[in-house]
Amino acid sequence: MAADGVRPIGGAHDHATMTQDDIIALVRVRPGVVLVTAGPENGAPPVAWGDTFFSYDPDGLDPADRFLPFATIVTQDYPGFDTASNLNRAGVFRLNIAVGRDTFRDLLGYPPAAHPEHAHRIDYRASDELLPHPVYGTQAWVAILNPGPRTTAQARALLAHAHSRASERHRQR
């Protein structure tokens, strides 16, 4: 495990899997987390219904004033925008995590700005693999489809890392 608590790719395997409910339960108890699952009741566009967004908002501001999420769970493709993961398959979801430039580089071996040069070699449909986000890789987001035995421990560590980063950014404002 790296000094920042993030397990590098290829580390020890955790034989558990994470469901969407497991991820939500893990993240929602962290201080300052605001969780929104998109649906008609909160005015989200239909394409996002069922997707979950985790933001850091310890001050309880109105949703319009919330900061960008530090992690999301996406359950379906966004036609014409985000389809590389083929999320419309039964039971498939993608955990997305904002990890920051340094952690992205440490995990994937190249900086986020270089992601377009590597994208053609990546199978964004692969489950239980740490991947750059197919759309937001250049913004230092990573993704895991259906975290399983190879990535559950890493997903947990990266979610804690992303929450910590969001908290620190809030303190610096």
Account of the 3D structure:
The radius of gyration is 15 Å and the shape is globular. It has a single domain, classed as Aspartate Aminotransferase, domain 1. The protein has helices at 20-28, 101-108, 115-118, 152-172, and strands at residues 33-37, 52-56, 71-74, 94-98, 130-132, 141-145. The chain is α+β, with helices and mostly antiparallel strands. The relative contact order is 0.20. The longest helix has 21 residues, at 152-172. It is built from 4 helices and 6 strands. A 6-stranded antiparallel sheet has the order 1-2-3-4-6-5, covered by helices on one side.
How many separate domains?
Answer: 1
Total E-strand runs: 6
User: What is the CA-atom radius of gyration, in angstroms?
Assistant: 15 Å
CATH topological fold name:
Aspartate Aminotransferase, domain 1
CATH top level assignment: Alpha Beta
Q: Give the helix tally.
A: 4
Low-confidence spans: 1-13
The biggest beta sheet reads:
6 strands, antiparallel
- Overall shape: it is globular
H-E order:
HEEEEHHEEH
